[in-house]
Specification:
The two termini are 57 Å apart. The strands form five sheets. Strands 7-9-10-8 form a four-stranded antiparallel β-sheet, with helices on both faces. It folds into four domains: 45 residues, no CATH class; 123 residues, no CATH class; 190 residues, Hypothetical protein af1432; 108 residues, Isoleucyl-tRNA Synthetase, Domain 1. The longest helix has 26 residues. It contains 22 helices and twelve strands. It is an alpha+beta fold.
């Protein structure tokens, strides 16, 4: 159908000729619907029972799903992704309630939810209680495309399908539970990670070694370090379990479940389960996840598989974001360069300094994306990353601090004051020593006294707050200095002494940010 107002737009494509008719709902055999004019399209389609607006469909689905869940004293699990997917699968949404045998509730909850959500696009239901702590109900909600005609037959069909899928899952889990999780680990040698980097067992062993090195870098206490090392040992074992082979989305999740049933410490099981999460909840989980991502990044860059254009078959952009984002969320200081060198040393192929530099630049690029997604201004982000890119959490703290300063009403006096000191000294190759006996003018003597006071203040490395709080009291004296003192004096010793004074002021910003990248500098 192609109309402009009441006029037909004639053309042919793929053997079809444009006309004035469209089709109705498929459950009603897609009846032909004549559209006299474009302005009548929405009205006629609505009368045909089709909900054109996706947001309206989503609202109808969500309201219907919640109402049906409440009818069995439950609460539907409605994820935004699933709601959006279902809304785009139907034109006339009709939610209805279905059920399954209670015996299947003995299966791990994540298995049940994954089958219902990922495979069937059903909405699972929890009993009303304390949210995620509440058990699942033996019910689910399906959204049909059409009305309630023959709804009981449709319900039976969906229940039959989910029963078969649960029965399969039950078989796989029972077979897996005949073994301990650790028993699966040797079979990782049959899975290739990458031909030059070895098997998944080789990767798991590298992760285990790297986890030992990352523990002190992340400040793990003695218990956390033990849990992290044990989790690293078992980290990838579930990849060869029958349940994960059948449903790969459950990797890590099944490892956590099987570890719990084997009697592993809860912290170990949680670390295994959190390895694929964007931000693992626990510090042992964070440690093994970072080890996994560092290993992938170092190894795959070394063998020439860095992402290019839209090609990223190993998901290294996601791995890099998964490296920096959890460090920011947990607020843990961490040196990327040292960690990358540790990961590189464990690779079965050489990792050159050039590759490491390329990899660090790639990770910092992802860090910039993360900070920009947090809605910080580009110039503030660039100013901080020019100096603090090696520590994602520290960089994020500095960006927050600098953002607050830039928003201050007196920023228009702070930045120019510092900029005057930078601009006159940045082309000087030599660092000059300040000698108090060479001072001539009162303005330079007062500025030096203020500088010494600022230098004696306690400061946290990388803190923009500490640097700027030290500098702000000096601004009137900086302005007086430039107004009353000729920096580039003819006398060489006087000139160099004054340049040295300004260089010392500029060095107050060392390790914080390059303010010259800010707008208005």
């Amino acid at each position: 159908m192609a109309l402009l107002g009441a006029s037909l737009i004639p053309f042919e494509y793929a053997g079809l000729i444009s006309g004035r008719s469209t089709r109705g709902l498929r459950p009603f055999n897609s009846p032909e619907i004549e559209i006299p004019g474009a302005e009548l399209y929405y009205e006629i389609i609505k009368k045909s029972g089709i909900v054109l607006d996706v947001e309206e469909r989503k609202a109808q689905i969500e309201a219907g799903v919640r109402e049906l869940a409440a009818s069995v004293k439950g609460q539907a699990i409605i994820s935004p992704d699933l709601l959006a997917e279902v809304a785009n699968l139907v034109e006339k949404p009709t939610p209805f309630l279905a059920s399954f045998d209670k015996e299947f509730l003995a299966l791990p909850e994540d298995v049940l939810i994954s089958v219902m959500k990922k495979h069937q696009r059903y909405f699972p239901i929890r009993s009303v209680g304390t949210k995620n702590a509440s058990p699942l109900l033996p019910n689910f909600i399906v959204v049909r495309n059409g009305d309630k005609q023959d709804i009981d037959l449709v319900r039976q069909g969906n229940e039959h399908v989910v029963r078969a899928r649960f029965a399969d899952a039950n078989f796989f889990v029972r077979e897996d539970l005949k073994h301990r999780l650790e028993d699966f680990r040797p079979r990782l040698g049959t899975l290739i990670f990458q031909k030059k980097l070895g098997s998944m067992l080789d990767k798991n062993e590298r992760i285990e070694k790297l986890t030992r090195e990352l523990g002190p870098m992340l400040g793990l206490d003695a218990d956390e370090a033990v849990f992290a090392r044990r989790a690293a040992h078992l980290l990838k074992a579930d990849l060869v379990s029958k349940m994960v082979i059948e449903m790969t989305s459950l990797q890590g999740i099944m490892g956590r479940e099987y570890a719990r049933r084997d009697g592993e410490a809860p912290a170990v099981a949680d670390a295994i389960g959190g390895q694929y999460q964007p931000v693992p909840a626990t510090r042992p989980g964070l440690t093994v996840a970072l080890a996994d991502r560092l290993d992938s990044l170092a190894g795959l860059f070394a063998v020439g598989l860095a992402p290019s254009g839209t090609k990223d078959p190993f998901g290294l952009r996601r791995a890099a974001i998964g490296l920096v984002q959890p460090l920011i969320e947990h607020g843990i200081n961490f040196t990327l360069v040292a960690a990358l060198k540790s990961a590189a040393a464990l690779q079965p192929v050489p990792v050159s300094d050039q590759v490491l530099a390329q990899l660090l630049e790639f990770i910092v690029g992802r860090l910039r994306v993360v900070l920009m997604d947090m809605e910080f201004k580009y110039d503030v982000v660039d100013a901080v990353l020019a100096v603090q890119s090696d520590n994602p959490a520290g960089a994020a703290r500095a960006v927050r601090q600098l953002s607050a300063w830039v928003a201050r009403p007196d920023w228009s006096t702070i930045l120019p004051g510092f900029a005057r000191c930078v601009r006159i000294t940045r082309d000087q190759q030599e660092k000059f020593t300040v000698r108090t006996e060479t001072f001539v003018e009162p303005a330079e003597k007062k500025l030096f006294a203020a500088l010494e006071k600022a230098e004696k203040r306690d400061r946290i490395p990388g803190s923009l707050d500490d640097f700027l709080n030290a500098f702000v009291p000096m601004i009137p004296l900086v302005n007086e200095f430039f107004d009353k003192v000729l920096v580039m004096a003819e006398d060489k010793f006087v000139r160099e002494n004054r340049l040295g004074l300004l260089q010392r002021i500029v060095s107050l910003a060392a390790g914080t940010a390059d303010l010259s990248k800010l707008e208005g500098f």
